[in-house]
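[stage:ingest] chain + small molecule (zinc ion)
[stage:ingest] validated
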Amino acid sequence: MLVVGNGRLFTRDANLPYIEDGAVAIDGTKIAALGTTEEIKSKYKDAEFIDAKGGVIMPAFINTHEHIYSAMARGLSIKGYHPKGFLDVLDGQWWTIDRKLTAEQIKYSAMDTMISCIRNGVTTIFDHHASFGQIKGSLFTIAAAAKELGVRACLCYEISDRDGMEKAREAVAENAEFIRYAIKDDTDMLAGMMGMHTQFTLSDETMELAAASKPDGVGYHIHVAEGIEDLYDCLKKYGKRIVDRLYDMDILGENTLLGHCIYINPHEMELIKSTDTMVVHNPESNMGNACGCPPTMELVRRGILTGLGTDGYTHDMTESYKVANVLHKHHLCDTNAAWGEVPKMLFENNAAIANRYFKAPLGVLKEGAAADVIVADYNPPTPMDGSNLNGHILFGMTGRDVVTTIGNGSVLMKDRDVKVADVDEVMAKCREESAKLWKSING
Ligand SMILES: [Zn+2]
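[stage:predict] done
[stage:export] tokens:
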């Protein structure tokens, strides 16, 4: 038994949203009870006690679009790389990196990303992976790191024809093999999807092979209309818009997750809505790649299940929240935009997306929910209660304020000390491997 108490407890459960001096009791991997610190302490006298020291106790964050393969790009300068548009960014940077990644580098990219997630209070991630020089086994390597670090992970490999049909077929097989493995895993900590890069690097033949190889019960995770070039390509080659092509190829559905959706029109939104397909928004990545601003507020207004990710740009979900908030106000010239939509995406919709793949209720602290709990060292200068937590997170908190992270009932970090890895050792190994990767890229 574990009790986390002596903090402002925010549950995200409408039946009991806030307890001023609250505590949560954890039994194994699940939440056993919630109450005042006094009540819970007296009920579970022998439990290990984690003192929140008056900070904030809340559900851990979920990131619905990550890229572990980008971990070793930080500080890298690629010779001759001067991108003039989104396609240059993909080809000149990301495809250049992913083609060179070795199994060891995939492992340490995963370790670094997941340690950073733990430090930012993120315990569940949906990753979209590519390593065209090392396809086979790549998802299993990432899954092993997730298991070692106690992070809940829904993984996929982004299938693409960009390096030829043999690699595309290998990528389909990696997804299929991993999905079958994840379905058999009964820890509720691993899941798999059929990953796809984007329609403009996928022929009908490859899409059909992916469909034929995909085990039942899972969907696709694919980038959609991230750049205007993707839309032009689809219109030119297929005479239809991107979401129409995906609909015709039977890729949409309640288990499918579409990244970005910047260049989609109202008809495509209707297709997404009518098929109950999920969407994930990644504000910083879209801005950084000069891709444009997606119609995210409209998607949420239409009731499309839209979540918030980072696209590997950061692992701090509060950063993505802050940027989404200002991006849509700026883009729509509307001072009232995004106040309600973005926290709904981050806290409600990310949990709903995650719970299409994981069984235990996520993103909420209530009896029977997954014991994914964080403590933030946050001492508010203004009144704070159940009605204004989102305002405090938006303007006052960052991922660095998270001091304790509990994932599936295990203490992953306590008082900023990561318990599941020797961080200095892992970072030294990451630097060693990334130096090798950079050398293989720049010669
Ligand atoms: Zn992405």
